[in-house]
Amino acid sequence: MWFFIIFTQLLAVMTSVLIYWLVKPKTTSAKIALIAAVFIINNVALIYGLTEFWGERFHVYLVVSILQGFMLYAGVITATVALLVYRLFKRKSRPILLRAFAITTYIAIVSLAVFNAYSPVVHRLTVTIDKPLDKPMDIALVSDTHLGRWFGNRQIKKMVNLIDAQHPDVVVIAGDIMNDNTIAYDNTNMHEQLSKLKAPLGVYATLGNHDYFGYDQQITQAVEEAGIKALDNESVLLNDSVWLVGRSDDIDRTRLSADELLTQVQTDKPVIFLEHRPSAMDEVSALPVDLHLSGHTHGGQIFPLTILMDWLTPLNYGSKKIADTQFLVTSGYGIGPVPFRLGTRSEIWIITLQSGV
User: Fold this and answer.
1) Rounded CA gap, 250 and 175, in Å?
2) How far is CA 174 from CA 19, 232, 283, in A?
3) Quick one: pLDDT at residue 328?
4) What single-letter DSSP state applies at residue 84?
5) Is the pTM above the cut of 0.85?
6) Where are the alpha helices (DSSP H) in the chain?
7) What is the pLDDT of residue 312?
8) Phi, psi (degrees; rounded to nearest 5) at 73
């Protein structure tokens, strides 16, 4: 908690400096009013957020903080451009033009972050395995939909349309289906749109950490009422040819080990392992698993976390083969607590599983 208190004051100082430069208050009272307003707004947002730590109110605080962080990005870009133009190229200083550039840059950053969050793309990956498979199987991977206040019916409808256009054989959802609870899901009747998500071999899901914040039973019920099978430490044989194994999130103390789960299946057939986090890569790669699908990381979601997460996790985003197992970590379709993506983009993966023998 002390981290957020100190962080908020530092943000307020930074924001005060940037706005002070932008508006150039003339009088002492205007300067005091500007600084006071920034600190008051920041601390009101902080107090409001801390009344529901990591809940909906805290998400509002995060939005306010990130918008200020984008101001820093705009300031750094503006300062760099000014240095190049005025110092290196010896151009005459034009303060009004520079301020207009700063405002335009800030608007562009925020717009790009919102666009990336709400304009998903479809990626493709072909995985060739050393096990027999009569014909290729197309798998649509979705993760981290975080259905809630800022991500609902319109985004579900877009997701269904994008997946339908790809004609996958099966759809899998790698956890964090809801953003902590089913309140917004129920209040806005998201069931109507989510139940339209279909595939010839079915739609399957595992729960993520945000699905376990006290609403796991309600979320499981909502998902299954929408026609999606929740795989809670269990497996299913797809088209009599491919095993899909679903494991609950790390937060579930009762979840089985990957080795235990594989006792449920015939490993001479292709095995797809679905779970929320890519935290068990060493465990899974030592087993006869052909394809491991997960999400959770959001790819870092917002720069510079996109880079920091690469340093802190074995696989933050994308595909990687370890031993005989192909791993794929998606940045997710949803947005989590904040409606921004910078350096990542909402996405759906279509994986073609085919035999090389």
Assistant:
1) 11
2) 42, 12, 18
3) 98
4) I
5) yes
6) 2-23, 28-50, 56-82, 95-118, 153-166, 183-187, 191-194, 216-225, 258-262, 281-285, 305-312
7) 86
8) -60, -45
